[in-house]
Amino acid sequence: MAAAPALIDAHGRAIQYLRISVTDRCDLRCRYCMSEHMRFLPRGALLRLDELALVADRFVARGVRKIRLTGGEPLVRGDTMALVRRIARHLGAGLDEITLTTNGTRLAEHAEALRAAGMRRINVSLDSRDPETFRHITRHGDLSKVLAGIAAAQAAGLAVKLNMVALKGLNEDEIPVMLDWAATRGMDLTLIETMPLGEVDEDRVDRFLPLTGVLAALRARFELIPDTHRTGGPARYWRVAGTGTRLGLITPLSANFCDGCNRVRLASDGKLYMCLGHDEGVDIKAALRGGDLDEAIDAALRRKPARHDFRIAAGAAPATRRHMSVTGG
Predict the structure, then answer these.
(1) Which residues have a Cβ under 8 Å from the Cβ of 264 and sit 6 or more positions away?
(2) pTM, whole model, 2 decimals?
(3) Cis status, amide bond into 94, omega within 30 of 0
(4) Whose CB has fewer CB within 10 Å in the chain, the N or C terminal residue?
(5) Which of 70-84, 110-124, 240-254 has the lowest mean pLDDT?
(6) Helical pair 49-61 and 80-88, crossing angle rounded to 10 deg
(7) How far apart are CA 70 and CA 58, in angstroms?
């Protein structure tokens, strides 16, 4: 394909970060993310491995510097490792980094292969280190598998950042303990406010915990130093004094971060979404199978909104019909 111009949206933001959801399936059922009885896409509706790779190729050619594979749970898809190796061929030739967000349940068996393919850091979703609380949040998860996966990743030489969704009345008391645990093991921790995506079985307002108050509480216990570090995502960081650990906060509700948005999301069904908080997407699958890929990407860029429309209110409909697992975090 011919060269194409850089990815600049209608608001002048350069797009340098592509998140690819390789599947909407997951082996957990986290209460803030999914309903208990999910209906997943038929496997034939997913983009094929070669199609996912072609989209990655084109985005790198047009200026994307970082690609993150997400899900659902990306490691439940059998050809994810082949995709990692395929995309990793761009490292040092336009692509700075390929990363992965995982729930960790299958990480132990894949950690060494991820490192060998060229991955250097991963995100692991971990909302509790208490086995019963973890099982409640995930509905049936086995914490020991996740902890074993984290240990295997670190042993393989992967830097691990923990992602923890802050949930009022469920894990808020664990947040200082989680930060301390991460610091003693050389891991970063990012706290995330729950986001109103897709219908779930509970009212999210009951679990919404603004991170502004959490940060104030943590400062009473830890010396936190503002840090200009950025990883390409929306988190804002603080260094934990006396450690090598960074604390990140992702605050879509209490402190909007959209002005610096540099990312787009490819869903596993081939829809390219410009914003996590909007339902409108462009059909990349159709472009791959009989259209013009650059034209489809450009059409999507023109539609990228200035900001999301997230809000939390009792009884309010979610911001989108899509669950988080469709487009990834």
Answers:
(1) 7, 15, 17, 18, 19, 272, 273, 274, 300, 304
(2) 0.88
(3) no
(4) N
(5) 240-254
(6) 30
(7) 19
